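Q: I'm writing up a methods section and want to include an example of the input and output format. Could you take the sequence below and give the corresponding predicted structure tokens, formatted cleanly so I can copy it straight into the document?
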Amino acid sequence: MNTEGSAEIIAATRRALCEHGYAALTMQRIADESSLSTAAIHYHFDTKRDLLNAFLDELIDRFEGRLESEASDSRERLVAFLDAIFVPTDERDEDFPIALMELKSQAPHQDAYRDRFRQLDRRMREVVETAVRDGIAAGHFADADPDEVARVVVTMINGGHARGIALGEAPDETRRVIESYLELQLGWAPEVPA
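A: Here is the clean output for your methods example:
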């Protein structure tokens, strides 16, 4: 899937999904967003479902790359995690959170989508859980259940995503609530830049 054509198709899928939404997404609309024909897209992906599975794979791989942190300090790793979640990478994709929510809404009906979202959820919880466990061991954080803290933080992120889409709530509000929760649970909060 690492061919130049596949990469162009994945990028076109993102644009078409943002512009038309999941329900109106067709191979023709994806082709319209690229320099390829629908036949060329079908050469790479047999079905729209195959294409969306590849799209989710690429999306998750990129996001997992953003979650990686070289920091040895658990506090810095938590800040890097929150930055990966809440600091936008591309201002042009204002509609992308809506498109992502539409894909999440298909997870109960599409096992492959559900598996990918489960994988992403596990990875996010793993990053938080490891940072919390390491921070407790290093004496940076108060004693807490790392698994429970990770589960609550990731649940807040998912809820914040839904609140942002449905209610127009700013992501900064979710981050503020998560930081308050971390302070209550761990006795630590990320420093606010001056």
